[in-house]
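REQUEST ID: PR-0412
SUBMITTED BY: lab tech R.K.
PRIORITY: routine
TASK: structure prediction, single protein chain
INPUT:
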Amino acid sequence: MVQAPQFFDALGFPMFKYFIFFLFGIIIKRNFQAFKNFINNPYKIGTIIFLFLVLSLIYLKIGCTPYAPINIAFLIFAGIAGIIVRFSFFYKYQDSFTKETKVGRVLQYIGKRTLDIYLLHYFFLPRNLQMVGEWFTENINPTLEFFVSLTLAAMVIALCLVVSNIIRISPLLANWLFGVKSK
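STATUS: complete
OUTPUT:
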């Protein structure tokens, strides 16, 4: 006999929370001018940033609640606030990410190779990091944890890009793995 949690998992209900972010993106795209007006208002974006920080601090202090609907709603609101904060940051400083800046060129290069990174990153993910996780469990330091994670991510991305460039030497492999058309 199939139990209710297994039935809901099989139908994909736990992943429904990601659909909400997709739907949020579609709504924002259709109403982009109103969204730009919203994020250009310093009081509204200040409120969203404050809400995001408060929700993040609450989550760091109490973690997940045992009651799943409240936990999912909490994570969705915090996630939407985080998306708005990130988008606002990149929108406000978009001139810093053009081809004329070094950071912009690096990010655009990484953006053009996202499929390569997606396909290759599994092979370069660090294994056996239990001791690092245990250390962060005992010594809670979100800032240090962020920079360690950022460093590991940068290393994985760099390795993926090096291997991607090596693979792209062969037109057959470049086409077969990454869909690169022959010139």
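NOTES: The CA atoms of residues 115 and 123 lie 14 Å apart.
REVIEWED BY: pending
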